[in-house]
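Hey L., structure's done. Input below.
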Amino acid sequence: MTYFNYIAIDSNGKKIRGTAEADSSFALATQLKKQAITIISAERLADKIKTEKGLARSKLGLSSKVKTEDLVVFFRQLATMVDAGVQLVDGLSILTDQAENKYLRDILRNVRENVEGGINFSFALARYPHVFPNIAISMVKVAEASGNLSGILEQLATYIEDKDKIDRKIKSASSYPRFILIFFGLVVSAVIFGLVPKFKDIFESFGAQLPGPTLVILAVSNFFRRNFLIEVGLLAGLVVGFKIFTSKPNGRRFLHQLYFKLPVIGKMVLKSTIARFTKTLGTLTKNGVGLVDALSIAAETTNNLVIQEIAEQVKKGVTGGASLARSLENHPLFPPMMTKMIAVGEESGALETMLNKVAEFYERQLNGMIDSLTAIIEPVLMIGLGVLALVVVIALYLPIFQMSGAIGG
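Output:
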């Protein structure tokens, strides 16, 4: 399918401009003729799109990432303006001038110019897939067809905000243990490469018999110091090897499967994935996106290859006439409670509502697990640091105490 920018005449003889998707210009003319619209000219946009996408990526780079808060503010303010009767082009112009993020400002300027030139708003957003997620583009398409742009934009802002809260919660829970582990590593390195060698010189000057714990600490320190370059090379090799391995589909699949099998963490990952998947699916189906398309977009938001492959199988089942719940039941990764709640939603005609309830349920469970894990990890890590400090102090100062006792005796 290709996008075309067209000029046509409607049934009232009024000249109109727009953008539509079709296999060819002839197919586009046939498609619009059914709506009593006669094409005057049609311009293929595929080449232009590729150029703009490549240009956007090269201009923006990695440092140009638009923050989630920026997107939430943009969609919410635009929804308010449209609801107040402000024209879309005028609203985009105002938000472009107000945008603090210069990269987003440049993108919004291009989006406004495209819309002003007759291109659909959803299509203009789709030119920047690295900024606007697929769910945003799909919902805006539905809004354009239904005429409820302000309401759907508000829902989209809420969805992005809620999804970001889950992501922030997970990052916050993992940041403290990560900091402690890094600090732990620095302390161990300082002991092995700095403190122990100095004590070794002191012990050798006395020529005393050293106790077992001290000999172990000295042996460990000598091993790491003598093989420092080898250790650095092995670490670099592991990092490079891991990146190469995970860059392949089979490697990513293995890693994403491993996420679900890790003790404790695996359950958190699964609950987070289910919450994100069902919330996206519920939001899309509620706003009129077809279930098959919604499944693809929902799976994409999980950033998990295993879920994406399962979604493809579920799509085949749904396309073949099976219910969503029945198609999901064939995959043991999804808990029975989830599939049963979805089955109830399908039977009662309230699938969208039930999907959102499933998302809320697993979000609550995830929040509870994160809070419990955070409460447990903190004292465990502190005890670990305390034990390390105790072992080092005993190993290094025990010979000094013994020599002092011998001298005093």
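Residues 46-64 have pLDDT under 50 and may be disordered. Residues 192-409 form a domain with the Receptor-associated Protein fold (CATH 1.20.81.30).

-- N.
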